[in-house]
Amino acid sequence: MNALNEALVTVHSRIAVAGVPNPSPDFSGPGVGALQAIANVVFAIVLILAIIGGLIAAGFIVVGHISSNGRVQKAGIIGLLSCVAGVAVAGSIAGLINWGQSLHVA
Description:
Shape: flat
Radius of gyration: 23 Å
Number of helices: 4
Largest sheet: none
C-alpha cells in the first residue's frame, strides 16, 4: 500500500509541475522601451474607443429589445463582442512585442 501511495504522489507531482507553465517575460533590449511606450498609447486609445463603442452597442441592444427589432439587437450584441475582442487584442500587445523580440529575425 505504501508503494502505491508513493507512486501516486510521484505521478501527481509530475502532472502538477508539467501542467502549470510559468512564463517570465523579458522586456529588455534595444528599442523595447519605445515600443512599450507606443503600445501603452495604443492601448489607451483602443480602451477609450472600446468604451465609447460598447456604450453605443449597448444602446442598440436596448433599442432593439424595446422595439422588438431582433436585427438591431443582434447588431448591438456583435458590436459589444467586437469591443471586448478589441480590448483583449490591445491588452496582449506587450506580450506580442516580447514574443516578436524573442524571434531574433534580424
